[in-house]
Write a structure and sequence with these properties.
- By secondary structure, the protein is an all-beta fold.
- It has strands spanning about 5-10, 25-30, 35-40, 40-45, 50-55, 65, 70, 80, 85-90, 100, 110-115, 120-125, 130, 140, 150, 160-165, 165-170, 175-180, 185-190, 200-205, 210-220, 225.
- It is globular.
Length: about 240
C-alpha cells in the first residue's frame, strides 16, 4: 500500500547505549502529509492484508524479576528487567489502541514476521514459535533457533532457514520447500518481495580476509538463485518498489 510505519525516539534524553529508551510508532503516507503517532512500540510488522501492525512494547512499571520470571511493579533491582509484550494496532482506526496478543511477558521479544493464517512468528530467546494472534494458547514451537531464521514471507506461511552455509525454504507445520543453493555464500541483508514471489538478498563470499558481495534474487517457488547483473559490492537493506 501507500502507508509506512516508522519508529521514533520519544525520550527527551534521546537514545541510550543499548538503543531506544522510549520508542513509539508513527504511521504516515508516501503521498505526503504529517505522520500520526500510533503508540508505544518497536520492530513493527504489517499484517498480510495491511490492516494491522504487530509490535513489541514495554509498558511502564512492568518488570521481570527473579528466577521464575514473574511480573513485578516494584522498582527494578538486581536481576530485574523491563518486561516486553507483543501488541497489535488497527492501522485503519482513527484512534488506534494497542491490543495484547496474549503471548505473555519476556525480557526481549523478537518479531520475525506475520504469516498466513493470522499467525506471528516470534522468539524470546533460544527457541522460536508461531503464535495465533489472540490465541496464544495454541502456539507451536519450531524446530530451529532464532539465529537460523533469515526471514518470513509477508503473505504466506514460508520461512527462509539458514544452517551453516546451507539454506532452505520451510513451511512450518506443512513440510519442506525447495532447497536454496547459495554457492557457499552467506545471505546478508535483504527483503522479501511484497507479493512473496522473490527474495532480494546480498550474498557474502569470503576470499581470504576480504569479503565480496553481490545482489541475488531467490525464486520462492523453485529455490532458484539468480545474480543481479552489475551488483558487485551490494550491501545493506533492500527496498522493493
Amino acid at each position: 500500500g501507500a502507508r509506512f510505519v516508522a519508529v521514533k525516539e520519544a525520550s527527551p534524553q534521546g537514545e541510550g547505549p543499548e538503543g531506544f529508551r522510549n520508542p513509539v510508532l508513527e504511521i504516515g503516507s508516501t503521498e505526503g502529509g504529517e505522520a500520526k503517532e500510533l503508540g508505544p512500540g518497536r520492530g513493527p510488522v504489517w499484517s498480510p492484508d495491511g490492516g494491522r501492525i504487530a509490535t513489541i512494547a514495554a509498558p511502564p512499571n512492568s518488570y521481570l524479576c527473579g528466577k521464575d520470571a514473574e511480573i513485578s511493579r516494584n522498582a527494578p533491582g538486581m536481576g530485574c528487567h523491563r518486561a516486553e509484550f507483543l501488541y497489535t494496532y488497527d492501522a485503519n482506526s482513527r484512534r488506534p489502541a494497542p491490543r495484547g496478543v496474549g503471548s505473555g511477558p519476556a525480557a526481549r521479544w523478537s518479531l520475525f514476521g506475520w504469516t498466513r493464517g493470522d499467525n506471528l512468528l516470534i522468539s524470546s530467546g533460544q527457541g522460536a514459535a508461531i503464535v495465533p494472534v489472540g490465541d496464544a494458547r495454541n502456539s507451536e514451537g519450531l524446530g530451529f533457533g532464532p539465529s537460523e531464521i533469515w526471514g518470513a514471507s509477508p503473505v504466506d506461511n514460508l520461512l527462509l532457514i539458514v544452517e551453516g552455509r546451507g539454506a532452505r525454504l520451510v513451511m512450518p507445520g506443512e513440510g519442506e520447500g525447495p532447497a536454496v543453493d547459495l554457492g557457499g555464500a552467506l545471505p546478508g541483508d535483504g527483503t522479501w518481495s511484497p507479493e512473496d514471489s522473490h527474495i532480494a538478498v546480498a550474498l557474502v563470499t569470503r576470499q581470504g580476509i576480504r569479503a565480496e558481495t553481490t545482489l541475488a534474487l531467490i525464486d520462492t517457488a523453485t529455490g532458484e538463485v539468480n545474480e543481479v547483473p552489475d551488483s558487485d559490492g551490494a550491501q545493506g537493506p533492500v527496498a522493493w518498489l
